[in-house]
Amino acid sequence: MVDIQKDTGPHSKCHFSHSLLPTYIDPHNVSTKKKPFSTFNSIPFSHTLDLVLPSEIYSLIQDKLENDMATKIQYARVHMKLGEILQGDFFTEYIKQGNIMMLSEGRSHVDNVIFLYEGVLRLELDRPTYERCGLQGVSIEDGGRKHQKARWVVEYDLRQPSMVHGKKGFGRLEWACKNVLDQSLTWLFYNFSPTSRESLKAEQEPIKAFAPFIKEAKMEKDMLENSLIPDLRVGDLEDLCAREQDDALDLLELLGLIALESPRILATDHTDAFISRYESPTLHRPLVKKDLVHVRFRGFIPPQFVRELFLLIRSGGLKVPRQDHDGAGGTASEEENRWFSLSANGFGGQRSYTVMQWAGRETLCWEIEQ
Question: Could you give the CA distance from residue 59 to residue 65 in angstroms, rounded to a whole number?
């Protein structure tokens, strides 16, 4: 664990790990307990996803990425009360039978925020609202006074058999929705059903009663020619992780500047040292010029999309030649230098991560908590 802290305010923490992918990955039944898939699931919904990779790898997956993945995320913005989510066809088809995710308006640790993911309803409430609701929850830290409980979290698994109209526990939630949490909120809505794109446009879904605004995630692509990056190989990763934490942070900082499309990483940059003294880190390897591609997705992005994008790039752009197979799904060549990185930022700015995947099984993960 690497500590990144400011002089004032709550401390941020960066958890760094070096792991190996499973020997075999079934694209239709991916285990989410191992990294990087557990890292993807750590943020239920992201607003920005950055992909960085060399141009020669991008050319191998360009058609599938721009034709299939670029238009895959369709979501909606809708105005609803919390109680309306728990009623009628919306509750039955989307929560009991289907699978959706929703996020309400509001700032985490400041406003009352509600989200629904995998059938679990989570209410993050301030103390006055929590006491008026009469629901059972647990206190959480909010960055304020250490021993004063100011915010509370209430969770309900709405897929439980007891979560139906007429049951006592569900009745308490309905009462709170009717008498306390009765404000109309702006929500982001995403349906995991593969047929939702067509039925949503045809107004054949229960959400149509609430006049949703249909939106699609935006994909932006930029080329970063002659970028100066260290000539890292798979054989260097073990030493990189064994050395001081500064090397891991230097690599994370470099990937962040690439995602920002900073001119400081370009070989043609000659900024006065008085303005910026940044130089691409060598990480004990020579610097090389490389053409990189930066792709950014903006929208209401689920972990499922990140996982599919990861598997697409790995299978289409990082295939290991047969003569280099190590018999366990990886590469026996320590000179392998193909890679890509994915960085996601969650709503509220509380969590983010960066995953750097190499050809074979080597994976580097940085998970940041604010």
Answer: 10
